[in-house]
Specification:
Elements (H helix, E strand, L loop, with lengths): L1 H21 L10 H4 L16 H37 L12 H81 L6 H26 L1
Keywords: Coiled coil
Length: about 220
């Protein structure tokens, strides 16, 4: 009985092994080279000092192009913002026939703004010219007042000179009368000195009067 049991168990194991052997085994996925050696992105930082002259020139040119692109992108963004603001401020406008007149309206607004700016510029120019003209008028008024004052002073001085001339001539006339009354062929020393002084004063006053007339 024991041998039969062992024989049965051996047969059962053999049948199980045969069943396992007859099962289809799934195919293993083959790994490609790219799977085995996964590419890794390596970031290389370049600096101007580590490059040769040709590469440095290309590097500088590339940096300049990138900066210019950034500048153009910023300008384009500003233009888009301005366009959105214009569309918001000036929505679509149609005339009675359904034609789009938005551009004509915007052109008219721009022309009106230009005319207004030109008017403001002309007004400012007129204001500046009027300001300069008023300053010139004030300057001429001051100069006229100074000139009139000088003229008054000259007239006063001229009157004084003429008054002195009359007095000196009168004294000379009186002095000559005294000399004639004395009938002396040789004039007195004091009389001669006085006459010379009077004539000198007379000559100085005449010269001074001429100078005043030339002013």
């Amino acid at each position: 009985m024991a041998s039969e049991n062992n024989t049965g168990s051996d047969n059962t194991k053999r049948n199980r092994n045969d069943q396992n052997a007859t099962k289809i085994q799934p195919m293993k996925k083959w790994k490609s080279v790219s799977d085995i050696y996964e590419p890794r992105r390596v970031t290389v930082t370049l600096s101007e000092g580590t490059l040769s002259l040709p590469h440095r020139l290309v590097y500088n040119e590339t940096i300049g192009v990138l900066k210019e692109n950034e500048k153009l992108k910023a300008e384009l963004f500003d233009l888009k913002i301005q366009l959105l603001l214009i569309k918001k401020k000036y929505p679509l406008m149609l005339d009675g026939n359904g034609n789009n007149i938005t551009k004509k309206y915007i052109d008219a607004v721009i022309e009106l703004s230009n005319v207004r700016n030109e008017r403001i510029r002309l007004e400012e120019m007129c204001y500046e010219n009027e300001k300069k003209l008023n300053e010139q008028r004030r300057k001429m008024r001051r100069e006229r007042m100074i000139h009139k004052k000088k003229q008054r002073n000259l007239l006063k001085r001229r009157r004084k000179i003429r008054s002195k001339l009359r007095k000196i001539r009168q004294k000379l006339h009186e002095l000559n009368d005294k000399c004639d009354k004395r009938m002396s062929p040789i004039p007195n020393k004091d009389t001669k000195t006085e006459e010379l002084k009077l004539r000198l004063s007379l000559a100085n006053l005449i010269l001074e009067e001429k100078e005043q007339n030339t002013l």
